[in-house]
Amino acid sequence: MAKRKNQSSSDAIIMAILYIVIGILFIAFRSALLNWMLTVAGILAIAYGIYLIIKKNLVPGIIFVVVGILLILGGWLFLTIALIIFGVLLIVYGAKDLIELLQAKGKTPVFPVIVACLTIIAGILLVVSKWAFLDWFFIVIGALLIVDGILALIKK
């Protein structure tokens, strides 16, 4: 029993250190990390596809190879278009929510209005300056991961 508790404690320490390292990577590489993550995922999918082809699972193997190629190409070629589309969707979603809140009868709560406005602003920033917005997003996520990792280490 003591060994199992010690093992889960060491697992928690490893996870906390991983959070800190990933947070540092997010802050250091910012939006470029997104391209690299898609590239690594693509390479892994291609490797698994080749493994399946060698094991005589031809159709799934070919599918994994194609998906891997699309992930690599998509990360470098189509990501900009996907970010613009996502930004437009955020604008539309935020505007829809804001209109519904303002048309509601009775007292409109402030917090949902703020969230709707922030959603619209995030969408506009994503469309206008997608990489700058993503850089800030990755910095915030990285900082949160570092803080979470440090708090987990302090707990242990």
3D architecture notes:
By secondary structure, the chain is mostly helical. It has one domain. Helix content is 91%, strand content 0%. The chain has five helices and no strands. Helix 2 (32-54) runs antiparallel to helix 3 (58-103), helix 3 packs across helix 4 and helix 4 crosses helix 5. The mean pLDDT is 84.
Estimate what percentage of residues fall within beta strands.
under 5%
Domains (count): 1
Please work out how many helical segments DSSP would assign.
5
Shape by Cα distribution = extended
Quaternary assembly: single chain
Question: Which keywords apply here?
Answer:
extended; 156 residues; 0% strand; single chain
Write the layout of secondary structure elements.
Blueprint: H1 2-29, H2 32-54, H3 58-103, H4 110-128, H5 130-155
Helix pairs in contact: 1-5, 2-3, 3-4, 4-5
